[in-house]
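user:
I keep going back and forth on a fold encoding question. Separate attempts, laid side by side, tell us more than any discussion would. Would you put together a sequence-and-structure record for a protein of your own picking? Write it directly below this note and I will take it from there.

assistant:
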Amino acid sequence: MKLKNILIVVKDIEKSKQFYHDLFGLDTVLDQDGNMILTEGLVLQDAKIWKQFLGKDIVPENNSCELYFEEKDIEAFVEKLEKLYPSIRYVNRLMAHSWGQKVVRFYDPDGNLIEVGTPV
C-alpha cells in the first residue's frame, strides 16, 4: 500500500488553486468538478462536497495537522508570502529552532495549517 494524496477542504477551489500556485508552484493535474488534484499530490476538495460526505461541520484552524514544505531561501519565501498575501494569519512568523532550522507557520485562506522550513 502507498499513500497517494493528501486532501484538504477549501471553500473556493479557484482561490485556493491560485494560493498554492503562487506560493508553492503547484499546478493542476486534474480538475473534476469540486475535486482538484495539484502537483505533489495535494488535493483540494470543495467544502460542500466534503460536508455532504462527512455529515459534520468543518473546523478551520483545528491545528490537528499541517502541510509541510521545505525551502532553502526561506527569507525570500517569507517576502513573497507577505507581498502576495499581506493579511495571512500566522501561527509563528519566521523563527529559528534550537537545532538551527528556520520555520514559519501560517494558515491558508481556509484555515489549513502550513509550515515552511529550511531543509534539515
Q: What stands out?
A: The mean pLDDT is 96. The chain has two domains: 1-55, 65-120. The chain is about 25% helix and 35% strand.
